[in-house]
């Protein structure tokens, strides 16, 4: 029996160069709430769901976690990120990688922990219309990464088996989610995590950026 490969992509730090814009946007949001937290601590949590992200940050600072505060932080972050959206560009090779998969007839989809309010700028930078390409955002699932719901929903949208999916992401949260749903986790260094961290979280291969993955697609069964 032949296994038909499909590819599920994270978005921030995987296809678009946006991780540090998210970090700065969260920093602005936290500052607006009077919460002092170092930038490096924020970066270590990029890639998980926004709700889990804010809960962890607030636990670290021993502040009260209220739904109102979490909602304010989310809104502040979205507003700050929108102000940085003109800086968002595709990562090297991202558009060529997606085009190569399409040309080869390999189904692909995007699954992001961001809500559509922040993901829209990233999709625009890539030239992707979510009406034409399967895109699953935080708005559409109960839990985001490191839970596997986003990838499971993306596989369902494609009509494929999740255990036949190559799941490409830049964070340990992507790899943990891939492991939990029995997908094949492939890590990229373009979000700031190291090779050892990604491999410990479950990545079976690690590449520098989308351009590097494109060159090595045959290593992860990316061919027809």
UniProtKB/TrEMBL annotation:
MF (Gene Ontology): phosphoglycolate phosphatase activity
One of the record's GO cellular component terms: cytosol
Keyword Hydrolase found: yes
Source species taxonomy: Bacteria, Pseudomonadati, Pseudomonadota, Alphaproteobacteria, Hyphomicrobiales
Listed name of the protein: HAD family hydrolase
Single Gene Ontology BP annotation: DNA repair
Keyword Hydrolase assigned: yes
Domain of life: Bacteria
SUPFAM superfamilies associated with the record: HAD-like
Pfam families xref list: Hydrolase (PF00702)
Keywords per UniProt: Hydrolase
Coiled coil: none
Gene3D superfamilies, alphabetized: HAD superfamily/HAD-like, Putative phosphatase, domain 2
């Amino acid at each position: 029996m032949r296994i038909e490969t499909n590819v599920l992509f994270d978005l921030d730090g995987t296809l678009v160069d946006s991780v540090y814009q998210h970090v700065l946007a969260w920093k602005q949001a936290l500052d607006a709430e009077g919460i002092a937290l170092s930038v490096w601590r924020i970066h270590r949590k990029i890639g998980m769901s926004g709700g889990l992200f804010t809960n962890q940050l607030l636990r670290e600072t021993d502040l009260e976690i209220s739904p109102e505060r979490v909602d304010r932080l989310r809104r502040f972050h979205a507003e700050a990120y929108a102000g940085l959206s003109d800086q968002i560009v595709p990562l090297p090779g991202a558009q060529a990688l997606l085009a190569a998969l399409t040309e080869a007839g390999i189904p692909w989809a995007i699954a992001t922990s961001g809500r559509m309010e922040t993901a829209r700028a990233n999709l625009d930078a890539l030239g992707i219309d979510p009406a034409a390409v399967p895109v699953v955002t935080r708005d559409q699932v109960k839990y985001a990464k490191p839970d596997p719901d986003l990838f499971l929903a993306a596989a369902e949208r494609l009509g494929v088996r999740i255990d036949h999916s190559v799941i490409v992401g830049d964070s340990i949260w992507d790899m943990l989610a891939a492991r939990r749903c029995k997908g094949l986790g492939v890590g990229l260094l373009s979000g700031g995590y190291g090779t050892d961290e990604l491999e410990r979280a479950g990545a079976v291969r690690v590449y520098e950026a989308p351009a590097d993955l494109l060159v090595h697609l045959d290593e992860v069964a990316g061919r027809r």
